[in-house]
Design brief:
Structural class: alpha/beta
Number of domains: 3
Number of strands: 10
Radius of gyration: 22 Å
Number of helices: 11
Shape: globular
CATH superfamily of the largest domain: Tetrapyrrole methylase, N-terminal domain
Strand content: 15-25%
Largest sheet: 5 strands, parallel
CATH class of the largest domain: Alpha Beta
Length: about 280
């Protein structure tokens, strides 16, 4: 299926990024689209009204959250069937990332309508680019499970990963999460970012060990950025086996080859030859 977003005239749902704190962090295009669509889907109508009123946007708001997303998805498909254009926004940031939206987007695609991204603010990227940690590659984990045993299992599954890890966490759970991260991952450099783009934005660059003695401010969700594993590779491994080991750990082939090149300080083309041609 090929989507020609701006050539084919089809009903469209626009996935519109909204500010993560500072109301000025919205694009001209996002404001334009929100003014043009027939209705706007949002998590909390009260939260979204604040943003929309600020930009003098007066459109029908439709509540769309985890508890009604199945029912509302069918309602939205019905509106698209009528030729309506819709926008999907979240309380803050880019919709679909730890917010409702994935199932709706899947169904819209399945029904043959357009899904168009209107990019903008994202807490993941906002925190990552100022962290001072390795930016790429990185893995976004999102919120960890609430159940302690499940949470520890997830952390353990990333123990050997060498890329930077990004986690979202509630301020009330940050302290315990830092303890679990230290117990399982050992001491690593981390960054705690909270209230991003707001007046009281705070970015703490420290280590997991030192973070255990920090006084945690319980206002505002946290983005936690964690240095990847410094584990060195087994030098007895062939280049091909090194790539295959990383693939077994969950990396895709392309990323695995990039990481082998970086670890061994050789070119990506050398890895490709050893893995694909001479292996």
């Amino acid at each position: 299926m090929i989507q020609r977003s701006f050539q084919d005239d089809k009903p469209t749902i626009y996935v519109v990024s909204t500010p993560i704190g500072n109301l000025k962090d919205i694009t001209y295009r996002a404001v334009e689209i929100l003014n043009e669509v027939d209705a706007i889907l949002c998590e909390d109508t009260r939260t979204s009204k604040t943003l929309l009123s600020h930009y003098h946007i007066h459109k029908q708001l439709i509540s769309f959250h985890d508890h009604n997303k199945t029912e509302k998805t069918q309602d939205m498909i019905a509106l698209l069937n009528e030729g309506k254009n819709l926008a999907l926004i979240s309380d803050a940031g880019t919709p679909g990332i730890n917010d409702p939206g994935y199932e709706l987007i899947q169904e819209v695609i399945k029904q043959g309508y357009h899904v168009v991204s209107i990019p903008g603010a994202s807490a993941i990227l906002a925190a990552l680019v100022v962290s001072g940690c390795l930016i790429q590659p990185f893995t976004f984990i999102g919120f960890l499970p609430r159940k302690n045993s499940s949470k520890k299992e997830v952390i353990e599954s990333y123990h050997q990963r060498i890329e930077t890890l990004v986690i979202y966490e509630s301020p009330l759970r940050v302290k315990k999460t830092l303890e679990d991260l230290y117990d399982i991952l050992g001491d690593r450099q981390i960054v705690l970012a909270r209230e991003l783009t707001k007046m009281f934005e705070t970015i703490t660059r420290t280590s997991l060990k030192e973070s255990l003695s920090l006084e945690i401010d319980t206002r505002g969700e946290y983005v936690i950025i964690i240095e990847g594993s410094k584990k060195t590779y087994d030098s007895s491994l062939s280049i091909k086996d090194h790539v295959l080991q990383l693939i077994d750990e969950g990396y895709d082939e392309k990323d695995a080859m990039k990481m082998v090149a970086k670890k061994r300080q050789i070119t990506k083309s050398d890895v490709y030859k050893a893995y694909k041609i001479n292996g």
